[in-house]
């Protein structure tokens, strides 16, 4: 229940954050240290915008189209790997599994 209560506001916050900084939605292709610095910097700037009562950024059709296109490409690559029977876990897959495990364990600890 605690996960359900917190998930929606967090997802809304991430949506506003990604609209304000579309590079977060498109994905960063940088070294992990640089990616962490960019993420923290955008979080700080986002919090400043909230503190200064800046309006939420509008939804940009161009950004939505670009994000959808990138997600489609990733989906096609995964489908091709599975068709070829050559599906190996990538670093990205492992990172997602690790993240999901951490989230699951954290919220189960709250019950």
Automatic annotation (TrEMBL):
Which superkingdom, per the lineage?
Eukaryota
Protein known as: DDE Tnp4 domain-containing protein
Task: List the source organism.
Answer: Graphocephala atropunctata
